[in-house]
Every structure is written in structure tokens, then in C-alpha cells.
């Protein structure tokens, strides 16, 4: 499978609302990066480590 | 560094052209660059020019985690697939002449290196067409 094909398949599994939110966040981040590099932080992997172990 | 940057962006450039600079510590260097250069009476950036700062992939991994998304070329539209580590790789061809420099005094060494680097730049310029042609063939040929 081509890279494009694999991406489309993955993209199809994302709920529409989430897809729209991410697209909006991406657009905003790229527009604002010139004045505020921190806007790119949304591309960081966001995981809460050990959330189940803490309880 | 400021001098080299200003001259590089003024060399045959259209101010509307997008510029990406790769520098090992661009996250710090680009912070106050504009104010810093505006205060300089001798050098200035072309009016309206906007520079997208970036850090080469090898160096960016030695920075804080957030520098990766903020400065890695992977996240810059139009940057393509580049590592952004350019300068040092160009010096490897000078290794061939280094044994001849061992016995030289400093001014002689400087002359030798200047000559070799000039020749290197000249060849880069005259062979650019051939290089792009080969890159194109590798990608689409």
C-alpha cells in the first residue's frame, strides 16, 4: 500500500468532529508560528503517563 | 553571524521570496534577531523579508522537546525532506588536502584553505545544473 493510501485509510477512521478540530488547530498553528513559535506545540505527542497507576 | 546572514539574503534575492535559515541554535538566535538588526547602523535585512527559522535534524534532537515541533524542517511547509545540516558536510572534501597543511605556518594554511574553499564554491556554482538534473532524475526519472 502506498503512503497516501495508508494515510487515507487512517484518516477515514478519525471521527468527523475530531478531524475538523485537528484541521483547524493545524491551520491556526501554521498561521501563527511566525509570531508565536509556541503555537506549534500542538504537534507534540500528548500522552498522560501512568494515569491508571496513580489511582 | 549577522553579517553573513544579511549578505546571504541580499544576494540575488527577491524580498517576496520565502527564506528558511538552518542554524544549530536558531531557537535562541531568531528570538530577538529583528530588533537586534534594527538597532545596527551598518547592516539591515531587506524590507518586508520574513525568515522562517529552522534547526537541522541532528542538532534539534539535542534541544528541548518543544524545539522539535517549533523548528524541525519536518514541520515547515515547503521545506521538503531535508536534514538541514549542510555546512559541515561540505568541509569533508577538504580532508584530502589536510596532510599538506600540517607542515604549514598559519598564514600559509589560511591561504591554502581559502583557495580550496573558493574553488569548492566555484565548482558548486558551475555544477549546479548537473546536480539538479540528477536530483530530478532520481526523484521522477
Walk me through what this model shows:
The complex is a heterodimer of chains A (55) and B (141). Chain A has 55 residues and is an all-alpha fold. Chain A has one domain (3-54). Chain A contains three helices and no strands. Chain A has helices spanning 3-12, 16-32, 51-54. Helix content of chain B is 52%, strand content 6%. Chain B has helices spanning 2-10, 26-29, 33-38, 57-60, 65-71, 87-91, 98-102, 106-126, 128-140, and strands spanning 19-22, 51-54. With 141 residues, chain B is mainly alpha-helical. The mean pLDDT of chain B is 90. Chain B contains nine helices and two strands. At the A-B interface, loops of A face helix 5 of B.
- Give the overall silhouette of chain B: globular
- CA radius of gyration of chain A is 15 Å
Structural class of chain A: mainly alpha
What is the general shape of chain A? Answer: extended
Tell me the span between the first and last alpha carbons of chain B: 39 Å
Give the helix proportion of chain A (percent range). 55-70%
Helix content of chain B: 40-55%
Number of distinct beta strands of chain B: 2
Roughly how many Å is the radius of gyration of chain B? 18 Å
SSE succession of chain A: HHH
Summarize the biggest pleated sheet of chain B.
2 strands, parallel
β-sheet strand percentage of chain A: under 5%
What's the helix count of chain B? 9
Counting structural domains of chain B, the number is 2
Regions with little confidence, pLDDT below 50 for 5+ residues of chain B? none
The chain pair with the largest interface is:
A-B, 10 and 11 residues
Ends apart, CA distance between termini of chain A = 42 Å
Question: Please, how many helices of chain A?
Answer: 3
Amino acid at each position: 500500500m502506498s503512503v497516501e493510501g495508508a494515510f487515507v485509510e487512517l484518516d477515514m477512521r478519525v471521527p468527523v468532529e475530531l478531524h475538523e478540530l485537528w484541521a483547524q488547530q493545524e491551520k491556526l498553528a501554521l498561521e501563527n508560528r511566525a509570531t508565536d513559535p509556541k503555537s506549534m506545540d500542538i504537534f507534540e505527542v500528548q500522552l498522560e503517563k501512568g494515569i491508571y497507576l496513580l489511582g | 553571524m549577522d553579517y553573513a546572514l544579511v549578505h546571504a539574503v541580499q544576494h540575488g534575492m527577491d524580498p517576496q521570496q520565502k527564506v528558511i535559515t538552518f542554524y544549530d541554535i536558531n531557537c535562541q538566535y531568531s528570538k530577538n534577531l529583528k530588533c537586534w538588526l534594527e538597532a545596527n547602523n551598518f547592516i539591515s535585512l531587506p524590507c518586508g523579508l520574513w525568515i522562517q527559522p529552522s534547526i537541522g535534524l541532528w542538532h534539534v534532537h539535542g534541544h528541548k522537546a518543544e524545539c522539535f515541533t517549533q523548528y524541525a524542517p519536518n514541520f515547515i511547509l515547503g521545506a521538503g525532506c531535508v536534514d538541514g545540516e549542510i555546512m559541515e558536510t561540505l568541509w569533508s572534501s577538504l580532508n584530502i588536502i589536510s596532510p599538506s597543511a600540517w607542515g604549514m605556518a598559519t598564514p600559509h594554511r589560511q591561504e591554502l584553505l581559502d583557495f580550496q574553499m573558493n574553488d569548492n564554491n566555484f565548482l558548486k556554482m558551475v555544477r549546479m545544473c548537473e546536480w539538479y538534473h540528477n536530483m530530478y532524475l532520481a526523484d521522477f526519472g
